[in-house]
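Lab notebook page, bench 4
Experiment: in silico fold of construct C2
Operator: M.H.
Input chain length: 246 residues
Purpose: comparison with the prior construct
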Amino acid sequence: MNAKRPLIAVLTGAGISTDSGIPDYRGPQGLWQRDPSAQELVTIGPYLADPEVRKRAWLMRRDAGAMAAEPNAGHRALVDLERSGLPLRVLTQNVDGLHQRAGLPARKVFELHGTAREVQCARCRVVGPMDEALARVAAGEPDPACRECGGILRPRTVMFGEALDPVVLQQADAVAKACDLFVAVGTSLQVFPVAGLPLIAVETGAKLIIVNAEPTPYDEAAAEVIREPISTALPELVRRLVRERA
């Protein structure tokens, strides 16, 4: 087992944000279970090729209310962990920006799937706020185009059919290799390459804790598996970690 620096890495998935009113995707009540056709709205090929898909996608974003969501006790617990002085890095599969809204420094949050709080033109790559694009939809533009070049606007997220940003993935890989504790929270650990991060951490000597309602492929490799609701389990876990590592 390699010597490790006392760094805590926390990987968060959709489960940490469900108490903020943002539904997960793959759980028993997840979006893909309730409406399998919705996956097309976040798949890059159909999105770029079909104006009707984009119109439905904009309506989904408008009606989801994710931009108005507020951090919950799980997000705030990680802020408490960071403010305790323990070295922390958060790797998130979420695109909701709630870790930063809760108070985590942006430099300590690695958004593996991008952010839904910004849009980007697929042609000229200019970036703008999602709020502004949604306001245009509310005002009657069903498929708002880039104001700079007229190109297709898309969220700055990693859509199905796209690769993760190699720089962000490399940074996450380095965190997984450097940490001595890896905590996976609210994630099914089924989507690669992100799902490989806990294994990288374990193979390089880290302890693994999983906090998730459903079983994951890595439960047997974990030193501890917590099935309690995240908004209560994570604050309790954070308090324990602070006590143990003080």
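Observations: Residues 1-21+71-113+163-246 form a domain with the Rossmann fold fold (CATH 3.40.50.1220). The chain has two domains: 1-21+71-113+163-246, 23-68+115-157.
Next step: discuss at group meeting.
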